[in-house]
Design brief:
The protein is about 35% helix and about 15% strand. By secondary structure, the protein is of the alpha/beta class. It folds into two domains: about 270 residues, Aconitase, domain 3 (2-Layer Sandwich); about 170 residues, Aconitase, domain 3. The strands form five sheets. A five-stranded parallel beta sheet has the order 5-4-3-6-7. A five-stranded parallel beta sheet has the order 17-16-15-18-19. It has a four-stranded parallel beta sheet with strand order 11-10-9-12. A hairpin with a 7-residue loop joins strand 13 and strand 14. The longest helix is centred in the first third of the chain and has 17 residues.
Length: about 475
């Protein structure tokens, strides 16, 4: 029978069907980091348990890693304690640890793909909401809580309900300067931050087919911000080309067998979906959030919406957002000066994100506006080393950005990179919740890396085309 990729992968990994919509699934790859694993390892010790399949568990440190210096001990004691705990736990339980004193460390959702650990048809879990990133490869990738991290360590399985599948088809093509970040912000605005609850999102259509793997990862990364448990793109030649030659990818005859199987697990052409949403790429503009959840966004030059024109529940959330952000309906985001510009995170900390911005800086000779603190933080050490090799670090520094070491940095701000007081940030990260970037009163506007760079130069939100003109299409990401 024909089926979606989600249903194929779910069925292939079912260890036990409870008969009530729940199933126990084998997890093919469990990614571990320092922020959600200490309690899970402690629970294993309390019960005298070992890790069931150490070879299917890979750890890194990312949330607490300083981006100015990784000299030990860290100045931040909590970060030092959490890293020490991860070092001890991975050693005691026999897990592979991509440590910050080695070449392979970085944000867990960046290093998984670049190491070739992330592959089509897998079930992947991690104690992090944005595990959905790995769905870009045709995997079912799930963010899990600490108790589930314990369960996966102990049994290599997780119990979950079977999800419905919504196909989100983006036809046509994107306008110049519109990026994958704009696409996902548009989708979340249209479908809502809870619109995907109970669903897996399958992204498809000509716009998705033409995206690079970096772009697909940006898209899937924020599927959870629309309420979906996971998001994915069916594997294709773009997927295979990205994975070929990666350290953990198959090689030789095993590669040919893998590709044949990867093709087979893609959704069948006549697969049935629980819901289908069709959008046009031409309708998507450069998007920026204005409020306190990723669904509260407008086009870069649009007017902020009037709460009075919304349904009562929405109007209430809008009023709360305006009060927190210190903004007014009917104004434009460009009316509010920014204090901080941040390019990085598991959403937009990959090579192409920095190359696109560097090209714009080199082409225009623009610089960060006085008074704006600007940080460029690669998502992995490998990304950083390649940028340095290409001289991109110098381009950012000459433009007025601080070019940092790899890490999560000012996305969640569980490190020393934080907003101060009521600072307003233009950020390429994934969440604009209250206090998200380290200050209880700090304010975040989410946008693409190119839009962040344009805001840094202008001193406030602006259409990147006004600052940089039109970038070559080969650099769009």
């Amino acid at each position: 029978m024909s089926a979606t990729l989600y249903d194929k992968v779910f069925d292939l990994h079912t260890v036990h069907d409870y008969g009530d919509g729940r199933a126990q699934l084998l997890i093919g790859l469990h990614l571990v980091h320092e922020a959600t694993s200490p309690q899970a390892f402690a629970m294993l010790r309390e019960r005298g348990l070992s890790v069931a399949m150490p070879e299917r568990n890979v750890a890194t440190a990312d949330h607490v890693i300083p981006t100015d210096s990784i000299k030990r001990p860290f100045l931040d004691q909590l970060g030092e304690d959490m890293l020490s705990a991860l070092e001890n736990n991975t050693q005691d339980f026999g897990l592979r640890f991509l440590a910050p004193d080695g070449d392979e460390y970085g944000i867990v959702h960046v290093i998984g793909p670049e190491q070739g650990l992330t592959q089509p048809g897998m079930t992947i879990a991690c104690g992090d909401s944005h595990t959905s990133t790995h769905g870009a490869f045709g995997a079912v990738a799930l963010g899990i809580g600490t108790s589930q991290v314990r369960d996966v360590l102990a049994t290599q399985t997780v119990t979950m309900n079977r999800l419905k599948v919504r196909r989100i088809q983006i036809d046509g093509e994107l306008s110049a300067g519109v990026t994958a970040k704009d696409v996902i912000l548009h989708i979340i605005r249209e479908l809502g931050v809870v619109g995907g609850v109970g669903y897996a999102y399958e992204f498809a259509g000509a716009v998705i087919d033409n995206m690079s793997m970096d772009e697909r990862m940006t898209l899937c990364n924020m599927a959870v911000e629309g309420g979906a448990r996971c998001g994915y793109v069916n594997p294709d030649e773009t997927t295979f080309e990205f994975l070929k030659g990666r350290p953990s990818a198959p090689s030789g005859e095993a590669w040919d067998r893998a590709v044949a199987w990867w093709r087979s697990i893609a959704s069948d052409a006549d697969a049935e979906y629980d819901d289908v949403v069709v959008m046009r790429g031409e309708d998507i503009r450069t998007m920026v959030t204005w409020g306190i959840n990723p669904g509260q966004s407008v086009s870069v030059d649009g007017l902020l919406p009037d709460p009075a024109a919304q349904e009562p529940e929405v109007a209430s959330s809008y009023s709360e957002a305006y009060a927190y952000m210190g903004m007014e309906p009917g104004t434009k985001l460009g009316d509010y000066p920014i204090d901080v510009a941040f390019i990085g995170s598991c959403t937009n900390g990959r090579l192409s994100d920095f190359l696109e911005v560097a090209e714009a800086f080199q082409r225009t000779g623009t610089r960060v506006a006085p008074g704006v603190r600007a940080l460029a933080v690669p998502g992995s050490n490998a990304v950083r080393e390649e940028l340095v090799r290409l001289g991109v670090d110098k381009v950012f520094e000459e433009a007025g950005f601080e070019f940092r070491l790899a890490g999560c940095s000012m996305c969640l701000a569980m490190n020393t990179d934080k907003l101060v007081g009521r600072e307003l940030a233009a950020s390429s990260s994934n969440r604009n919740f209250k206090g998200r970037q380290g200050s209880p009163t700090g304010r975040t506007m989410i946008m693409s890396p190119l839009a962040v760079a344009a805001a840094a130069v202008n001193g406030s939100v602006v259409d990147p085309a006004e600052v940089f003109g039109t970038a070559p299409s080969s650099l769009a990401s």
